[in-house]
Amino acid sequence: MPVITNIADLKRLHERRTPRMFYDYAESGSWTEQTFRENTTDFEKIRLRQRVAVDMSGRSTASTMIGQEVAMPVALAPVGLTGMQHADGEIKAARAAQAFGVPFTLSTMSINSIEDVAEATGKPFWFQLYTMKDTDYTSRLIQRAKDAKCSALVITLDLQLLGQRHKDLKNGLSAPPKLTPKTIANLMTKWAWGIEMLSAKRRHFGNIVGHVHGISDTASLGAWTAEQFDPTLDWSKIARLMEQWGGKVILKGILDPEDAKMAAKLGADAIVVSNHGGRQLDGALSSIRMLRPILDAVQGDTEVHLDSGIRSGQDVLKALAMGAKGTMIGRAFVYGLGAMGEKGVSTALEVIRKELDMTMALCGETKVQNLGRHNLLIPEDFEGRWQP
Ligand SMILES: Cc1cc2nc3c(=O)[nH]c(=O)nc-3n(C[C@H](O)[C@H](O)[C@H](O)COP(=O)(O)O)c2cc1C
Question: What cellular component GO annotations does this protein have (predicted)?
Answer without folding.
Answer: plasma membrane
